[in-house]
Amino acid sequence: xxxxxxxxxxxxxxxxxxxxxxxxxxxxxxxxxxxxxxxx
Length: 40
Description:
This protein is an alpha+beta fold. It has one domain. It is built from 1 helix and 2 strands; from the N terminus they run E-H-E. It has one helix at residues 20-33; strands spanning 4-7, 36-39. It is flat.
């Protein structure tokens, strides 16, 4: 069972950033399911 999701933004070595709407989607998913969201 998934207990946490880790997102790294900006991503190394490319410096790519996740779009805000994608981060909001992960946040909502984690709120609904109780999964921890870690953003570095």
